What we know:
Layout: H1 21-26, E1 34-35, E2 51-52, H2 57-68, E3 80-84, H3 90-96, E4 102-107, H4 110-125, E5 133-137, E6 150-155, H5 160-173, E7 181-186, H6 191-207, E8 216-226, H7 229-240, E9 252-261
Parallel strand pairs: 3-4, 3-6, 4-5, 6-7
Antiparallel strand pairs: 1-2, 7-9, 8-9
The protein binds S-adenosylmethionine.
S-adenosylmethionine (SAM) binds next to strand 2, helix 3 and strand 4.
Amino acid sequence: MNPTRRRLPGLAKKDGFLSHPFDDANGVRTSGLVAGRNLKTGHAHDRHATAYYGVAPSVFHALASRWRKTLPAASIEQTTFVDIGAGMGRAVLLAAELPFRQVVGVELHPALVRIARRNLAVWRTAGRTRSPARIAACDAVEFAFPPGPCVAFLFNPFGAVVMRRWLRAMMRAFATRPGELDILYVNNEQEGEFELLRSAQQRRRKRTAAGSTDAQLVRLFLGPIKRSRADREADKRILANQPDGEYASAPHEDCSIWRWMA
Ligand SMILES: C[S@@+](CC[C@H](N)C(=O)[O-])C[C@H]1O[C@@H](n2cnc3c(N)ncnc32)[C@H](O)[C@@H]1O
């Protein structure tokens, strides 16, 4: 067998793999936990990857509906959804059921890219995509966002170093595009990186002439989003079955919503 096509550690029954009810109900493959150390691609950012794990569908839906209540600058039909660290594409599948302008999943690991693309094909065949959707195989920091309003979704994909690089890349890419970027962050372990950037922007604003219209990051929401009872039970069962018990499940995910605005 081609070694790059061998099943990733964490995705075999002997590694404690259990499937999530989302997959059983929908005929897709998004289950499993792959630790960051097992997500090697040869890229310099590999060592900052957290893990692969699919987002709880109930958390995705609750955060998306909270975001829609924040009065985004554009309608959902004009907005591109980008999942940064798309893994096997669970969040991409869920987003593609909404009428976004387009949905893009960005994923670095080639085995996960292949699985996500197969899942999208299942979704299309089943008539479940309301928006055009695709998976881009590349590093998050190198991904070029399309023109027009965008919402970036992150389910704790990487540690502080890459988060800092990604945020800087965003600020450069959207420098002349205030109001065109919202960020939804689930399991926001690197929230401090956003806060540091916001403080630096506020200091810069104070130093420059009064009335500066430079865009800045504004936090619209910070707090826990509860899993549904079904997701809570599924994640608890799946994570408790891991042989080394490295990851624990909680009844909620800590989340935030940020807007890049003038
Ligand atoms: C926790 S999973 C999230 C999966 C998906 N977003 C979801 O919600 O179902 C994080 C993913 O980020 C990916 N990742 C980590 N670092 C990355 C990078 N620098 N560029 C692109 N993807 C990355 C990992 O390979 C992993 O699949």
